[in-house]
Amino acid sequence: MPDQWEFKSHTYDNCNCSVSCPCQFNEPSTHGNCYFAYVGCIVEGHFNDTPLAGLNWALLCIFPGEIADGNGRRQIVIDDRADDAQRVALEAIISGEAGEPLSNHFSVFGSLCSEFFETLFRPIDFDVNLELRTAKVDIPGVVKSAGKPITNAFNGEPFHIAIARPTGSFEFTYGEIGQGASSVVGDLEMAFEDSWALFCVHHYNQDGLIRGT
Question: CATH for 5-209, among 2.40.10, 2.40.400, 3.40.50, 3.30.1330?
Fold first, then answer.
């Protein structure tokens, strides 16, 4: 019997594109390449009989050109609180090896990478508020990042901007947009600030994206 699983994560994504990330609209990336850090907290989840809720995770990638051109470099970071069964389960999901091929963004990114670094098991200090569009990330020796709302230059008030994808998406159905700053060291080195940040729910199972969340 195929693996039965569910993965529902409150996720913060910061990449090097402008805050109006053209990749979301099938246009060329801002700088002709894509560097990004996804960090999430699983609010509901299991892999067969293995519970996953409460664990944090990160996905780091560098694409030297457009994502669709491939040749990406990838590293996964998994919460060091995970036990052996949880580590195996999360690595299978985040690598994109679990579930139907190309049915979620983990599988799509994995198919477009050609270099895979060793998965790290680290403490992941992560705080995110999807509604307020704020996030703080500290993975010692790997990632530091902070996300915040975009603010109106005229009155200093936060903008409330979102993307809805009722059909056609393999990643999310609704996402709040902000801006972020990240610094990544180690196997994948990158740094960017005042760039695209997305605050969303990733909700998948073995068949792909679960809509309506």
Answer: 2.40.400
